[in-house]
Amino acid sequence: MRRVRQSAWLLLALVALGSLGARLWAPADYATQFREAPNSAPSYQHLLGTDELGRDRFSRVLYGTRISLLMAPAAALLSTLLATLVGGIAGYLGGWWERTAMAATDLFLSMPWLFLLLAVRAMLPLNVSPITSIAVTFLLLGLLGWAASARVLCAGARGLRDSDFVLQGRASGLRGFRLLAIHVMPNLKPVLLAQFWISIPVFIISEANLGILGLGVSEPLPSWGSLLRELESFTSFGFEAWKLVPLALLVLVVSSFQIILSVDEVHA
Amino acid sequence: MQKIVQHLAAMAAVVLVGGLLSATLVRLAPGFGADEQQLDPRLSSESVEALRQARTRDSDIPRFYLHYLGRALRGDLGESRTLNRPVRQLLAERLPVTARLVGAGLLVGWLCAVLLAVGATMARKPACDLLATLVAGLFLSVPAAVLALLFVFANAPAYLAIALVVFPKVFSYTRNLLAKNYGSPHLVTAYAKGVGPLQILVWHVLPVAGTQLLAVAGISVSIALGAAIPVEALCGIAGIGQLAWQAALGRDLPLLVNLTVLVTVITLTANWGSSFAGHGLKAREA
Asked: Does the distance separating the beta carbons of A205 and B143 come in below 8 Å?
């Protein structure tokens, strides 16, 4: 299992490095059109062929991977921070605060995630600049994805609230947010980290779902979601297998996250 | 009885707040006040004024929501702006389609997940376990929309796409649960005494795991309903998933509010139903 985990880490590192250095190895910019060669098959010049607008697919995959791999952790960070604010503090304070925060969490959890995401995304303007569309998509993922983590963090903070060292801290005169910052938060760190890592693959998949439904990152910027939209015009798997590269990459990356997380769970 | 009343009261509160929240979000969305109908030159000034007044009433969120609640209690759920049809009629037409799709998906997904988990755990071979986990992990990594597209392309039934979304989540939970149960001391003793694997499964493992699995049943309904949106939208199935998609794109406030409330009620009922069933089973065991 250790080897599987190491392979997963290696794959993630390679994909991250490859996408971060997109400017170095991409043969063209993600928006550059080769008008004389639309929908071309893989060649020496275009390793994965070109799309229907004549853009180099390999370059778009590299840049798209960079966007998805950078923005999903950013959204995960935002959702974990929100979960800490709602769940962590509510669990620490207890009583009315905890009940109200958990009622709000239940409200969020009672609405199917994709349903909620889709509705809120569609309420915002669809015709925005590509950069804004990235911000809107991943901001929404971060803002709406906190509920499950908040519940876990609330339980963790509640456990810490009644622990001996917190009681001792209270007895020695520590109060309120100082006690929270010195004794509770540092002990919640493992739970926070776990929730952060769990959120990343969830957000990558959610962005892909939104992208395929036309509510994700706008053209010409690529992301895994917008790259997968090409599957809509698919006619045959056998003859155009190279079009499945973004899907294969997404599955490999998300699977790597799952492997790392499952091994972590076993060790925990 | 008191617990049931408490749960119903909590459910009503969550539904009311959820509906108000979605109404607020839609109202605040840019372009909400724009209505192409008002630009129609064939309409008289009185008709345009009536449309404008209807819009003004809807733009005041609390007023709109109270008005909506009053009508909903009388069974009138309003009219869809994008489809120009009563919402109640739309829901009555489309809910059975989604219920069949989600129901079949859940059934197949659960069957595959439980059978594979039981097989992988009973085989007691790391290779079998790894293979089953890899298969589940693969489907866990594929977005529901991609599965829907692949099923459209393969001309396969759409409920299988929902089944494949539900399957990995139920499988991983069931597998972990069974593995934990099989490792418990009384089962190790039973094995040592020569009790058959099937007897152990039926008499010792499944009854214990059953109550815990019920908790996932409610959550799997929510997962399947979420997956119904891309599956119905991309496979062209006229269910509430597709309706939600159309309502969201058209910013159809009455339809969206009703759908939000409906989906929330279904999810909460499923969650609390499975929770009650679990408590009932536990009480009977005790």
From this structure: yes
